[in-house]
Amino acid sequence: MPVWLREYRWRQSAAAVFLSLPLPPLRATAASIFCTEQYLKVSIPPFLFEAVLYAPIDDINSTAKIENGNIFFTLYKKETGMWDSLMIENANKEQLQYLRENAVLKAQEKAKEEAEAKKVTKQEHKKYTLEAMMKLEEAERKRIENLKEQERQKVTRELELWKNEQTYTEGQKRIQREEKLRQEVEQLKENKKEKITKPTIPNEGTSKTTVKHTKGPSSSSMFSENLKEEQLPAPRSAGTIKINFTSRVFPTALRESRVAEEEEWLHKQAEARRTINDDLAELKDLKEEEKNPDWLKDKGNKMFATGNYLAAVNAYNLAVRLNNKLPVLYLNRAACHLKLRNLHKAIEDSSKALELLTPPVPDNENARVKAHVRRGTAFCQLELYAEGLQDYEAALKIDPKNSTIEKDAEKIRSIIQGTSQDL
């Protein structure tokens, strides 16, 4: 049975009611206060205070304060005016019960509305947070795309500049060769013309003898006889002169010469072509049951192990033609392209492998780690360190205990930080 608290003091103004309720001594529990527009309840088990107020109050702005063994209430009236009493007098039990139940229902509805409002506010905050995250991700994606575009434009400009320099140098060399050739041809023509137009000058003795014979009595027959014997030869018939030019070589200075490296590269290319042709001939002669992707994959793996990367690429190419849904073929071919410095092809094959390795499951974790590392390595060798670091971090998310990948990622971060400081 509750013990009802009957003692209280109150006073009022036109706008508010001031209620003072003395607390019982040695109270063991905290006071619980329940207040609505026209109902006030204070519970301090086993003590209880209940009041059905004379008129409605503003329960939201009203306050309660415990001080010096009393509870002080400040209850603001909804309508200004003076009350005749604090509580409704002469109310029967049914009316009091109705007022209590009505107060509880209103309190429950109010609590429900507040909960709904909190839920809506929480959803709005969540939506705002999601939109903010999406905007940040979009800004980051645009930043990465801009960096890629800037890097691509930079490489394109450097390539165009190099091509222009090569074209200009080759044009200058060609002009010099044509000018020298023209000068030599002109010189030969001049020499030929001088030989053809140069007159024949007879010697002095012959000229004098001829003059003496013309003065004698029988000079006519003697002149005719000598003329026949000393007659000039006929002009030579026209012909074609064949001219051979010695090739002109402009050797590179010894300190800048790369002849040895070029010869070694040509030798390796020739060996690779011979190996590829031999492997192609071998693959064409395979039995029908051996023409399957798994056999070609094993063949490519053996070629890769022996360092024959071009032949391995060819084997993987044939396997891809037979079945283009095996991610291991693209993954292995990306490794070959890395060895051959075909970096863009390595990126394409690694991306294709990641595309096929979906959905991500524990069985393909190792393959996804390899694909991210190989694509990240290709990006770093192209000096696209930001993209390379993203792939290494993706690999670390899959295999966080891999110390080798962690060390490589830390090196890439150091390079990026050093580059940003230099810039």
UniProtKB/TrEMBL annotation:
Coiled-coil positions: 88-198
Swiss-Prot/TrEMBL TPR repeat ranges: 369-402
GO molecular function annotation: nuclear estrogen receptor binding
CDD domains in UniProt: p23_DYX1C1_like
SMART domains: TPR (SM00028)
GO cellular component: dynein axonemal particle; extracellular region; neuron projection; nucleus
Subcellular location: Cell projection, Neuron projection; Dynein axonemal particle; Nucleus
Main localisation: other
UniProt region (Disordered), positions on chain: 198-224
Keyword field: Cell projection, Coiled coil, Cytoplasm, Neurogenesis, Nucleus, Repeat, TPR repeat
BP GO annotations: determination of left/right symmetry; epithelial cilium movement involved in extracellular fluid movement; heart development; inner dynein arm assembly; nervous system development; outer dynein arm assembly
Residue ranges occupied by any CS domain in the UniProt entry: 3-87
Family annotation (Pfam families): CS (PF04969), TPR_8 (PF13181)
Protein name per Swiss-Prot or TrEMBL: Dynein axonemal assembly factor 4
Phylogenetic placement of the source organism: Eukaryota, Metazoa, Chordata, Craniata, Vertebrata
